[in-house]
Write a structure and sequence with these properties.
single chain, 234 residues, mainly alpha
């Protein structure tokens, strides 16, 4: 029954998918409970989604636990989000550690944020989780005023491909008048898809009295701004 629901979902018939998943869920299918939760979330029926994920969680579905954490965090229910993320982490969801770090960071509890980000750096965690954790530790460093540590962590995350870390590292270096290095990381972030970096590159070019580069990047700012507003840039 669960597979029939998934086939219907792939065919775009979500109503039929829901009916099959309901039947499979009633028969004890953990996967159906999870998929029903996704269905209800997409339909805006958030408490029904949580109800399905709670049932799936009780059967050991760590993804369902994690999704409850995401939804509760979006609703600003920090305590419920924390509980769900901790349960997901205990069940093997490494990414929950970075989410916990972010929750504590947002609350200003930098010690707990650092603790969770460092847990996420464990050798057993996936590469993307480690990247996000290093970026988070960079944020913690800035928040504490420890720019040396912030640079170390931002650089680690940036070298591992974090676009956010590239941009933040560029800003940190710019604020220290290390402009050549700053430009390198701003350009890396731009090349990785963050077109907001064009304005930073224009500004740094002016600071370096490089009018040619400043004009080149300023033109790109106008092009990207026009594209965002739906205008043709040809």
């Amino acid at each position: 029954m669960y597979n029939l629901g998934s086939l219907c979902d792939e065919a775009g018939d979500r109503g039929a998918a829901k009916e099959w998943w309901l039947r499979a869920s009633a028969a004890g299918s953990r996967d159906a409970m999870f998929s029903l939760g996704v269905y209800y979330r997409d339909a805006g029926e958030l408490e029904d989604a949580v109800g399905c994920w709670v049932k799936a969680s009780a059967l050991g579905d760590s993804h369902a636990m994690f999704n409850i954490g995401v939804l509760r965090a979006e609703q600003a229910d920090v305590d419920a989000a924390r509980t769900a993320y901790e349960a997901a982490f205990d069940a093997g969801e490494w990414v929950a550690a970075t989410q916990l770090g972010s929750l504590f960071y947002a609350e200003g509890d930098f010690d707990e944020a650092e603790r969770w980000y460092r847990i996420a750096l464990d050798e057993g965690s996936p590469p993307k989780t480690k990247q996000d954790a290093a970026y988070g530790l960079g944020l913690v460093g800035v928040a504490r005023g420890d720019l040396e540590q912030a640079e170390i962590w931002y650089r680690l995350a940036a070298e591992d491909g974090s676009v956010f870390a590239m941009g933040n590292l560029g800003a940190l270096l710019e604020n220290q008048d290390r402009l050549a290095e700053s430009v390198g990381w701003y350009e890396a972030a731009y090349d990785a898809g963050d077109h907001l970096m064009a304005s930073h590159l224009a500004r740094v070019s002016l600071t370096r009295n490089d009018e040619v580069e400043a004009n080149r990047w300023s033109e790109r700012v106008l092009i990207h701004d026009a594209a965002l507003r739906g205008y043709s840039t040809e």
